[in-house]
Amino acid sequence: MQKQFPMKEYLLFCGTVWVSDTCCFPFSLGGVKKFLESEISVYVKSIEIGNSITEDFKSGYLIHPNHQVKMVCEDLSTDAHLKNGFNAIGFSQGSQFLRALVQRCPTLRIHNLITLGGQHQGVFGLPNCPSLSSRTCERFRQLLNYAAYTDLLQNFLVQATYWHDPLNESKYKTSSTFLADINNEQTINKSYVENLQRLNKFVMVQFNNDSIVQPVQSQWFGYYKPGQDKETQRLKESSIYIEDRLGLKKMDEQNKLVFLECEGNHLQFTKDWFRKNLFSYLT
Does the structure show a pLDDT above 80 at 60? Predict the structure, then answer.
């Protein structure tokens, strides 16, 4: 049996650049970093948010994505190893954070963006949040259900910034301080569209047996149909695609969008699967 990387839920910017539940644990991102460096001899940078692994871990819950994206943009822009461009991989919520980096940091030249288990259209539920007790998961769920769009939670709980309530789309669009902005839900920021278009490929990996991302289709930019939380729709059926608010329709027509499946649970993949499906976008 192939060894699996037991990735946890939270923050990761990566690609020849990384950041995760923490930047450096050897059983998660540290292991992937070593794997890539040894197998394809690439420069892999781990980004630490804060001054310690503990602070880095807390950032996945408590430091607003807007601040994190700005910090990472400034850090990577001064890295001489990356000046000629690089490929980038995002894991779980790091997927949409890294996409925000592409859209907001034009000083970087990112060739291919790969996201694994991301929540590009947000989440509506926390069925199994890792690294936390079930009781804490339930408290988070209750908080988000009733107060996700308050100033308090939007400013102090990372997961609230990509909480997408399909039963109240108007509130989501006006009150989300992160996801609604990077998805051009209110107004169309043309620079976001132009910067995303610079990618050679935008690769999205969906874990079909995911017990953490709800709904699973968010990993491929799908989501619940507006006004209910039972039926889902694909990216091509959504207004963000039909109106081409983010340029994804144009990217699709240019064959820049790649949709991959993995049968595992959240971020559960083997080295062989990674080699077979993703190495071609990293070399």
Answer: no
- Of all residues in the chain, the percent with pLDDT exceeding 70 is 78
Residue 107 CA to residue 208 CA, distance in Å, equals 35
Asked if 266 is an active-site residue, the reply is yes
Rg of the chain over Cα atoms, rounded to whole angstroms, equals 17
Secondary structure element (H or E) that encloses residue 111, with its range: strand 110-116
Task: Give the integer Cα–Cα distance in Å for 208 and 259.
Answer: 12
Catalytic residue among 21, 120, 210, 238: 210
Domains detected in the chain: 9-127+187-223+231-281 (3.40.50.1820)
Predicted confidence at residue 283, as pLDDT, reads 78
The DSSP bridge partners found for residue 88 are 113
The two tokens of residue 198 are: 């610079």
pTM over 0.70: yes
79: annotated active-site residue: no
User: pLDDT per residue over 138-186, tens digit each?
Assistant: 677 677 878 999 999 999 888 899 999 999 999 999 999 999 999 999 9
- The answer to whether 122 touches 212, Cβ cutoff 8 Å, is no
Residue 125, classified by CB atoms within 10 Å of its CB into exposed (0-12), middle (13-18) or buried (19+), is: middle
Q: Considering the candidates 46, 92, 175, 176, report the single residue annotated as catalytic.
A: 92
CA distance 101 to 203: 15
